[in-house]
Amino acid sequence: MSEILDILKKNARTSLEDIAKMIRSTPEEVAARIEAYEKAGTIRGYRALVNEDHLPGERVTAVIEVKVQPEREGGFDRVARRISGFPEVVNMYLMSGKYDLLLFVDGDTLREVASFVSERLATLDGVLSTGTHFMLKTYKQDGVLMDGDKVDDRLQVSP
Amino acid sequence: MSNRSQVAAHVKALPFSGIRKFFDIVASRKDVISLGVGEPDFDTPWTVREAAVWSLERGATHYTSNRGDPDLRKAIAGYVARQFGATYDWEREILVTVGVSEAIDVALRTILNPGDEVIYHEPCFVSYRPSIILAGGVPVCVETRREDEFRLTRDMLEKAVTPKTRVLMLNFPCNPTGAVLGQKDVEDIADFCMKHDLLLLTDEIYAELTYESKHVSFISVPGMKERTIFLHGMSKAWAMTGFRIGYACAPAEVSENMMKLHQYAIMSAPTTGQKAAAEALERGDAAVAEMVAEYNRRRNYLIAAFADMGVPCHTPAGAFYAFPYIGDLGVSSEEFAMRFLEGHGVAVVPGDAFGQSGAGFLRCAYATSMDNIREAMARLSVFVDGLRSRKT
After folding, report:
1. Domain check: are B266 and B290 in the same one?
2. Would A3-40 and A52-137 be classified into the same CATH topology?
3. Given CB atoms, is A54 within the 8 Å cutoff of chain B?
4. B26 close contact with A: CB closer than 8 A
């Protein structure tokens, strides 16, 4: 992978000047390459990685397994497109195994998520069944541990 | 109490490590950004820690064979062959030690007769000279220089060699200078060892941490394995300093005799550490590569920052140390380090803690986060500007 992407994936706020120093380039060159990645759609966006458990108020995430009827032409894609269009669905994958689609659905309340499943999702043409699991706690997200701060307990000077 | 000293004269005569004094001063201060730490800031890879925990759970808490756990020695033989191109017999030529530090001590005591001369290079790791002295040897120092990028050249060695020279002791990639040797350097020095019939004691603990080209090991040179004690360990590239695992690969006779000293003094290296080390050698490559990539970015950043502030620094091609020159700023290394610490809260190590020829330099370890490095360099720039304006 490109060094720039690697650096941005670790910390998207790394400045152009710092990236340039880290890879022996210039800020202008780095900016041009990032812009190229953005234009090509390789970089899809930049956002904060938030530990939702720290925020006040309820936030509900459900993991939903969905069985669907694949179609003669198009397979799972057409129904997958319809499901993924809902803003409540934040992540969605086609899976091998006992079910077909795996959805991560966000909502403000349990009721809100439940009604999305029963009223919008389960009633879609092609959806055969759903299984809903509610998330209880986030330990790790996108490779980042969510609890505990790293403490540097090394000796301050060592040979 | 009688007046008789409780401490042997030759031990009393040993100086404390120059780094120790500085450590005490830094330790008394809070909120210091430290570029003085000679160990990785990364956590030991999880797979390695998990293997250590598992070994405890299943009760692997007894002595291992004196030479080290057979599984680990086989893993070491495999790794050394794959990485450095030399084949060692895991049963007779490999000894697992408590870090490379123990290996250095045991190796020197095994090979030196009283009065044998050992050529080593400064600036170097703090234990080399005392270890040679304690083993009854006579240390002969060769000073590496900035104009050679702190590489050791054959010329320097030819000037230092005498009929009494038995051993050449090296550390490349080098702590504290970050210097490395290229293929040609290694071949020249190997040739020098063969010509003068010297044993080579080579501490290659930073072998994985090179950034400009792949490390060249002395044991890859034909004819050298037979006269080389190759030292390596898990501390640096695998971020496993606290596990205390090093190893020595040496000709069977040397290895066997080193094993005697190791056996009487140590018994066997810590078992938990050995289990962890075997896991690291077998499944640690990806984690090492990721750490090397990160060190390289920090290194590049430091080089650029020194250039921006006009502080001369040779390109450190290995280990995780930069060794900038501050000798033209009108203060000694020690005074620089003290004032920088007191005025700006950043710890760097005076270069002469690693030998007199380090005077005028600082060791800046980049085994700390990018945020710390950025902040430390910003403060260094202010401090250096201040020194310059006072000078003129």
Report:
1. no
2. no
3. no
4. yes
CATH number of A52-137: 3.30.70.920
- Can you tell me the distance from the alpha carbon of A110 to that of A60, in angstroms, rounded to the nearest whole number? 6
> Cα angle at B217 between B211 and B218, to 5 degrees?
145
Q: Which two tokens stand for residue B265?
A: 């003094």
B274 and B339 both lie in a single domain: no
**ipTM, two decimals:** 0.81
Answer yes or no: is B4 within a domain: no
Work out the number of other CB atoms within 10 angstroms of the CB of residue B342. 10
Is the separation of the CB atoms in B365 and B376 below 8 Å? Answer: no
Domain CATH code at residue B382? 3.90.1150.10
d(CA B72, CA B91): 11
Beta bridge partners of A63: A104, A133
Domain that holds residue B309: 9-44+286-391
The residue from B284, B318, B353 where one domain ends is B284
Report how many domains make up chain B: 2
Looking at the fold, whether B247 and B385 belong to one and the same domain comes out as no
Give the pLDDT confidence of A23-43 residue by residue, as tens digits. 999 999 999 999 999 999 999
Q: Distance between CA atoms of B358 and B333, rounded to whole angstroms? A: 9
Summarize pLDDT for B202-249 with one digit per residue, the tens: 999 999 999 999 999 999 999 999 999 999 999 999 999 999 999 999
- Is the CB of residue B66 less than 8 Å away from at least one CB of chain A? no
Contact B297 A23 (CB under 8 A): yes
Q: Within an 8 Å CB–CB cutoff, is residue B297 touching chain A?
A: yes
Output the pTM of the full model.
Answer: 0.91
Of B201, B215, B221, B242, the residue nearest B319 (C-alpha):
B215
Question: Considering only residues 193 to 252 of chain B, which have any Cβ-Cβ distance to chain A shorter than 8 Å?
Answer: none
Indicate the domain borders of chain A: 3-40, 52-137
Residue of B233, B270, B225 whose CA lies nearest to B251: B225
Q: Are A132 and A64 in contact (CB under 8 A)?
A: yes
Query: Are B280 and B299 within one domain?
Result: no
Q: Which of B7, B69, B72, B77 is nearest to B225 (CA)?
A: B77
Residues in B touching A7 (Cβ below 8 Å): 297
